[in-house]
Design brief:
- The structure is a single chain.
- With 138 residues, the protein is mainly β.
- 4% of the residues lie in helices and 68% in strands.
- It has an 8-stranded antiparallel barrel with strand order 1-2-3-4-5-6-7-8.
- The radius of gyration is 16 Å and the shape is globular.
Length: 138
């Protein structure tokens, strides 16, 4: 199954631990509002890092999405993993997956992967997912 739509995201820098500061790691908060086949919000955190000498950049993040997925209520965790070279944007790799067994309520058993597209400064998503048919059956 697929769920498609758009989202608005606010990413803000936040305090980094002393150890994170020593390692040159950044920390951000994530605050999203989804529209479309997902109606809801998400809250999360992102860790960022890079190497100035090569232009390598990376981030990992976790966010909890709460709302409705194609009419079914609950929440689930998304896990992000991304990297790229500043000098070569085409080198970018982004994986966003539903954390196994993280779905609650009518979204119990949810699995899948999310694709993010950014065009003209606007964010859209396509969640390819599976949900056990017995969950939330009508």
């Amino acid at each position: 199954m697929h769920a498609k739509g758009t989202f608005v995201v606010k990413i803000s820098p936040t305090d980094v631990s002393a150890l994170g500061q020593e390692a040159g790691i950044g920390r951000m908060t994530i605050d999203k509002t989804f529209s479309g086949d997902i109606e809801g919000t998400s809250k999360g955190e992102m860790l960022t890092g890079g190497a100035d000498s090569t232009g390598a950049m990376a981030y990992v993040a976790l966010e909890r999405v709460t709302g409705k997925l194609n009419g079914r209520s609950g929440s689930f965790l998304l896990m992000h993993n991304a990297s790229m070279l500043k000098s070569d944007p085409a080198s970018g790799m982004l994986q966003v997956t539903v954390v196994p067994q993280s779905g609650t309520d009518e979204l119990s058993g949810l699995s899948g992967k999310l694709t993010i597209t950014i065009e003209g400064g606007k964010h859209s998503f396509d969640l390819e997912y599976e949900l056990p048919s017995a969950v939330g059956a009508r």
